[in-house]
Design brief:
By secondary structure, this protein is of the alpha+beta class. It starts with a helix and ends in a 26-residue tail after the last helix. It has a 5-stranded mixed β-barrel. Helix content is about 25%, strand content about 30%. It is built from 4 helices and 5 strands. The chain has one domain: OB fold (Dihydrolipoamide Acetyltransferase, E2P) (Beta Barrel).
Length: about 160
């Protein structure tokens, strides 16, 4: 009987822990404590992506804004800039979709959490799927237009709903 109770408590704790783990897969969570994620592989749950409104400063790399979802509460989890090889941009857009339409579905996106400029939570952080961004930053060959990146470009940080 003791073991049965212990098993029930352990399973309950495990299910709660899994819920907390899922909510860590958002852009907002990564920016809360970026130092613990910088230059590491990360996974976020993406509901949709939008190509940026500016021309990529790097040949061969396309940039998208990815809208993330907190799986636990099914609520908006922030937006983050994503670097994608240009030859995979169409496939990337098709995989994640470019229209929100009120959906709460999500697809996992993996890449390296990278600082492009600034520092701390207010720095310009991106998810790099190309493997090229750190060297471009080190060589000062990557300049993102001022005022863009992260939640910018989705209505100044407001929750994206329709019509963007």
């Amino acid at each position: 009987m003791k073991y049965k109770s212990l098993l029930v408590v352990t399973l309950a704790f495990a299910s709660v822990s899994v819920g907390f783990a899922d909510s860590k897969r958002t852009a907002d969570y990564l920016r809360i404590n970026p130092a613990s994620h910088v230059d590491k592989k990360v996974t976020v749950d993406v509901t949709m992506v939008k190509p940026v409104s500016w021309k990529s400063p790097v040949d061969g790399i396309s940039f998208f804004h990815a809208s993330t979802l907190d799986r636990t509460d099914k609520k908006f989890g922030g937006v983050i800039l994503v670097a994608v090889p240009s030859d995979e941009a169409e496939k990337f857009a098709k995989k994640y979709g470019t229209e929100y339409e009120g959906k709460n579905s999500r697809s996992a996106l993996e890449g390296t959490f990278t600082l492009v400029s600034g520092n701390g939570p207010s720095g310009l952080w991106i998810i790099d799927t190309t493997g090229k961004i750190p060297q471009l930053v080190a060589d000062k060959k990557l300049v993102i237009p001022h005022g863009d990146g992260n939640a910018k470009g989705f209505g100044g940080g407001r929750r994206p709903l329709r019509g963007w």
